[in-house]
């Protein structure tokens, strides 16, 4: 989905003179930091839409020909720096007319509300007046106000481009009540509670070895069996991962790079690829892709039916359910003799592969298709 940065013009892109009209070339001055910030936002995938009130444009007090020259020069400067605008929306009315096209009215931008390809939750508005912030609220996007003691272009770009990747997902059915919260850019002690001790231990491996903060609480119908709690926890966790990753720009995408797997002596298999993680006599291999196309392949057989309170048949089912809701392609294989070691190696190998896939490596979308 496309994220839009709606931007005011006077006082936001270019400095606003005392008479509030930029009707001469010598009045044209750019707001400090605007071009570097917009380049960062462009590279992060934002498209730009200018929304500006130009009081009485075309009247005797503000002739159109006086407006056009400085405006076109401004647009040429932006274009020369690689910054383009998807659309320029100008309201020419006077304040006392109270037209719905004038900010904070949103009639000029209504087509963005109707366009389902627009990610309004990820979009924002930047302006220098209360009317700009009210416009953002009316449109349902995040608002930033420039000004002394308020925001700068640098801080806005940081907030939108470097924002922590967090998600909170709740899932309530007749069988389970689940809440998952995660922060992919913060490491902290995990808070896991499902009523299944060994399953809690395995979920803790995902956060610990995945390198992110994970909290998951599940209240399930364990008086029936473990199936609903394990399956629904996987679905909720997958949905949270998908939400936190967002548009996937800058992520590694693949979890199979040739590097040490870290704690536990894990290493990369140079022949088959993927994270290969040993645990005593057991060995697990995981390779994943945040492709958006859910697919799960499992190769392994556990020597006993349960480890603690977790049926081993639910281990591959957990990963299949997680892949479905996260949009993950995961290949997972395990061999060994001790079922506890085998299951734990699976979760750790998956977490180490996930750690690589979610790592920020730049700003580009890691796909030749232009979408993931």
Automatic annotation (TrEMBL):
So where's the catalytic machinery, residue-wise? 8 (nucleophile), 10 (proton donor)
GO MF terms here are: histidinol-phosphatase activity; imidazoleglycerol-phosphate dehydratase activity; metal ion binding
A biological process (GO) of this protein is: L-histidine biosynthetic process
Q: Identify the stretch(es) annotated as Imidazoleglycerol-phosphate dehydratase.
A: 165-372
Q: In which pathway does it act?
A: Amino-acid biosynthesis; L-histidine biosynthesis; L-histidine from 5-phospho-alpha-D-ribose 1-diphosphate: step 8/9; Amino-acid biosynthesis; L-histidine biosynthesis; L-histidine from 5-phospho-alpha-D-ribose 1-diphosphate: step 6/9
Region labeled Histidinol-phosphatase — which residues?
1-164
| Annotated localization | Cytoplasm
Primary residence = cytoplasm
Give the cofactors, semicolon-separated. Mg(2+)
Species assigned in the record: Denitratimonas tolerans
The record's catalysed reaction(s) read: L-histidinol phosphate + H2O = L-histidinol + phosphate; D-erythro-1-(imidazol-4-yl)glycerol 3-phosphate = 3-(imidazol-4-yl)-2-oxopropyl phosphate + H2O
**Keywords from the UniProt entry:** Amino-acid biosynthesis, Cytoplasm, Histidine biosynthesis, Hydrolase, Lyase, Magnesium, Metal-binding, Multifunctional enzyme
Recorded protein name is Histidine biosynthesis bifunctional protein HisB
Any Pfam family from its record, for instance, is IGPD
* Family statement: In the N-terminal section; belongs to the histidinol-phosphatase family.
Is Amino-acid biosynthesis there in the keyword field? yes
Q: Which residues bind Mg(2+)?
A: 8, 10, 128
- State which Enzyme Commission number(s) the record gives: 3.1.3.15, 4.2.1.19
Q: Name one GO cellular component term.
A: cytoplasm
Instruction: Spell out the PANTHER family in the cross-references.
Output: IMIDAZOLEGLYCEROL-PHOSPHATE DEHYDRATASE, IMIDAZOLEGLYCEROL-PHOSPHATE DEHYDRATASE HIS7
């Amino acid at each position: 989905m496309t994220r839009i940065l709606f931007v005011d013009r006077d006082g936001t892109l270019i400095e606003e003179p005392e008479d509030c009209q930029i009707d001469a070339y010598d009045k044209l001055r750019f707001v400090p930091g605007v071009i570097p910030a917009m380049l960062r936002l462009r590279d992060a995938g934002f498209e730009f839409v200018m929304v500006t009130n130009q009081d009485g444009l075309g009247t005797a007090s503000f002739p159109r020909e006086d407006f056009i020259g400085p405006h076109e020069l401004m647009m040429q400067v932006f274009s020369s720096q690689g910054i383009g605008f998807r659309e320029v929306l100008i309201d020419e009315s006077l304040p006392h007319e109270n037209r719905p096209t004038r900010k904070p009215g949103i009639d000029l931008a209504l087509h963005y509300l109707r366009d389902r390809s627009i990610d309004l939750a990820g979009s924002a508005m930047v302006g220098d007046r209360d009317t700009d912030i009210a416009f953002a609220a009316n449109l349902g996007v995040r608002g930033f106000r420039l000004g002394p003691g308020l925001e700068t272009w640098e801080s806005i770009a940081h907030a939108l481009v470097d924002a922590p990747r967090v998600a909170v997902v709740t899932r309530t059915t007749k069988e389970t009540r689940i809440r998952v919260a995660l922060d992919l850019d913060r490491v902290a002690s995990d808070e896991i509670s499902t009523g299944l001790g060994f399953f809690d231990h395995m979920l803790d491996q995902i956060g610990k070895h995945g390198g992110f903060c994970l909290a998951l609480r599940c209240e399930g119908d364990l008086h029936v069996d473990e199936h609903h709690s394990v399956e629904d926890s996987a679905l909720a966790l997958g949905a949270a991962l998908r939400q936190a990753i967002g548009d996937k720009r800058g992520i590694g995408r693949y979890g199979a790079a040739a590097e040490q797997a870290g704690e536990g002596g894990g290493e990369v298999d140079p022949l088959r690829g993927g994270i290969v993680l040993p645990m005593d006599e057991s060995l697990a291999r995981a390779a994943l892709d945040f492709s958006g196309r859910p697919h799960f392949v499992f190769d392994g057989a556990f020597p006993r039916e349960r480890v603690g309170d977790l049926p081993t048949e639910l281990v591959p089912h957990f990963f299949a359910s997680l892949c479905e809701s996260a949009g993950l392609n995961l290949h997972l294989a395990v061999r060994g003799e001790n079922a506890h070691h085998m299951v734990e190696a699976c979760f750790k190998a998956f977490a180490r592969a996930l750690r690589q896939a979610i790592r920020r490596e730049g700003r580009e979308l890691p796909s030749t298709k232009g979408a993931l």
